[in-house]
Amino acid sequence: MNRFYFSRLATYLRQERPRHIAHLRMALGRAIFWGGAIIVGLLAVAFAKSADAMSGVFRHAHEHMPLLPLLVTPLAGALCVFLTRRFFSAAAGSGIPQTLAEMRREDDDLRPLLSLRIAAGKIGVGVMAVGSGFSLGREGPTVQVGASIMAAVHRHLPRSLGIQRHHLLVAGGSAGIAAAFNTPLAGIIFAIEEMSRSVEARMSGLVITAIVLAGVVSKVFMGGGHYFGHVLIESNDSVLLACVALATLSTGLAGGVFARMLILAATRWTGRVADYRRHHPIRFAALCGLLVALLGIVSGGLTFGSGYEQTLQVLHGYGELPWYFAPAKFIATVTAYLSGLPGGIFAPSLSIGAGIGNTLSDMLGTPATQSMLIALCMTGFLAAVTQAPITSFVIVMEMVDGYSLIIGLMATALLASAISRLLSPPLYHTLAMIEYEKARDSEHTQLAATPPSER
């Protein structure tokens, strides 16, 4: 009898073994994916903490030695560009265009724009750049870091899961932006509006899962509050309408010019300065660092770093920003971006918008509506630069807890983005096409230099 039961059991195990192995592989694949999302959250937190710590050290040194940035910022800029070009060539710039370009890639022979080495360089060199006074942010680079982690995860997933690499890149990038800003809803919108332009049923689950896991890690280490805390916003309908009109016109024009300048610099910039940047990129970065240092010293240190501290203070009424803050920050951010350093423009764009809103509030003489006007201008400038209006107003709404201002934020974002489109094509997708063409040209150049016998 026992022999009969043991025989039946052995037969059952042999028959069910493939199914159990398949279930085990699927469970292992989900665990690997969850682990990747958690790592994205941890890296976003490490990036944020390191950049803030380095920026704090730089500000403290600047307060005690006001002329120190004239030495530190140019040298750091030259070193960062050297390291980027020598070891992390795809880490230059924001990181969002590189991620979008990688999603277009169909030929495995093209130079990769996402990898663990690129992610390490993006964080390491990015922290050095922000910590030496350059007007750059860490949110855009975190998109490339998150997508790089998920690209590595995809290589270890069982094929039986049927998860496409494209879907994981969207999930990783959106989880990165959500963890960096501590804005989970904005991460989902960013995935839809900027990265994928559509949502498939299977991909939506991956995106939400990655955002939830990365967001939980971010909240554990960075707290559960809003990025800029709870901002008290007072308004009425007539004042709101006037503020929306002012914010839309000013930020739409300024943001459109900002995006246009970055695109022209990457495509059709000609002349002696452009030639010098092309032939002497490290020296050019040092000169950019010198200009950034001069702007920072003249402005009393206001234009150094991402601009988070200045934006936080003016939103809560702790201090005032001078009228020249927005144009000085504008120039500092464009200069830092042109230098070729790893770094994004999300946080600097928000600070430029805050500066515009503060100046408009001073001109109108309406301190009671200052926070409202600043929030609207932050939304408008970010929407005009990125031409991603839904992502922009959701980011600001979540960062300042501005649900009471949602209609005004929506209107400002949509109208400012429309004005920007009259001046400039979409920034990130235009730069992504340029990055994709660079990767193809690099591969063709390398192939042409290879002897026929080695091809």
Automatic annotation (TrEMBL):
The keyword Secreted appears for this protein: no
Lineage: Bacteria, Pseudomonadati, Pseudomonadota, Betaproteobacteria, Rhodocyclales
Residue ranges of the TM segments: 27-47, 67-84, 113-134, 168-192, 204-227, 239-263, 284-308, 328-352, 373-397, 403-423
SUPFAM superfamilies referenced in this protein's UniProt entry, alphabetically: Clc chloride channel (SSF81340)
Topology with respect to the bilayer: Multi-pass membrane protein
One Pfam entry name: Voltage_CLC
Keyword field: Chloride, Chloride channel, Ion channel, Ion transport, Membrane, Transmembrane, Transmembrane helix, Transport
Species the sequence originates in: Uliginosibacterium silvisoli
Gene3D superfamilies registered for this protein in UniProt: Clc chloride channel
Protein name: Chloride channel protein
Superkingdom of origin organism: Bacteria
Subcellular location: Membrane
